[in-house]
């Protein structure tokens, strides 16, 4: 039988009497040098683990003799530990696990945050794809097991270069449970400014979402006239990817052919990012940020406050008929249609002012087909392009590209005799 015993941060004392006796009575005790040192009085055969392939081979041989073998590991063997690999190599009838507290569990206790809903990732000797994916998904809590190469600064750099709309506090928990334990909270920016600082190689990094981003005076003053970075917008907590990305937003603003003193409808406004950019470009225009979800309206209202816009009107829309009550627009942008694209287009046909134009962003080929057919059948001019942006991403000293979703931008106006 092979018993895999998790050691806690205070070594032998972290084990119950029962588990301690299992260790002490084992005929073979395997572990790292550090772990074996916790049992100086052990009388059996002690083997230092060094190389996984060699160790497994050795272990399989020893197991044939029906010896009682104990392997010491840190924390919970089945939490990014040796346990998973042992299960791949050894019959699970021959394995028993005795877990201890994991480093992540301890870290969450120290920072006083519940952890049942956290997302766990190990980049300890692994690639960073899963980490990038969880940033892009906007997970609320991300707990990361690191190694000396993938340091907290490297992680913060990756997060910042993704230029996402979610903001986080980053906790770096070093040497947990040891005398030199350190637990500190940083903003991503502050962390990358610590370029030269060396954190202990034994650390876990925890990202906790921070929704209290308020633009300070300085940041507000430095906002560009066009193309605000995504991270400044408040987004849907559960679906951060729902926002129209900055590069696409810039293209939409160009396609809209904006002029002063216009009425603009932004249908399916979502976070209001397009409305807010329009309002900053043209402060004499009136922008109706039309949105059917209450959450969306709340986010639009908060974003308007955040960017101090005075000419965006968040418009909750219970039924499409309410669009008839709004002032006729010079420009319409449709960013979301909730499955009612044709009904919306019919209303736009009646309400759009002469010489007005309409821009739709479409993520699916089906909706593109529906739109084109409708424009053809109703004798509108239309043109379109597809846009697919890949953004740069800093991985240590290298730069990689990662793709964002492609969209179609369709622009249309009515034909007049
Ligand atoms: C291979 S994983 C082992 C995880 C282990 N099974 C557990 O339950 O915690 C090793 C990683 O755990 C983290 N770690 C382990 N002990 C730690 C400690 N005392 N302080 C901070 N991080 C620790 C580090 O990120 C390290 O790279």
Automatic annotation (TrEMBL):
Matching Gene3D superfamilies: Cobalt-precorrin-4 Transmethylase, Domain 1 (3.40.1010.10), Methyltransferase, Cobalt-precorrin-4 Transmethylase, Domain 2 (3.30.950.10), Vaccinia Virus protein VP39 (3.40.50.150)
Pathway: Cofactor biosynthesis; adenosylcobalamin biosynthesis
Keyword annotations: Cobalamin biosynthesis, Methyltransferase, S-adenosyl-L-methionine, Transferase
Source superkingdom: Bacteria
Domain (Tetrapyrrole methylase) ranges: 2-183
GO biological process: cobalamin biosynthetic process; methylation
Any one GO molecular function term: protein methyltransferase activity
Official protein name in the record: Precorrin-6Y C5,15-methyltransferase (Decarboxylating)
UniProt organism field: Atelocyanobacterium thalassa (isolate ALOHA)
Lineage, top ranks: Bacteria, Bacillati, Cyanobacteriota, Cyanophyceae, Oscillatoriophycideae
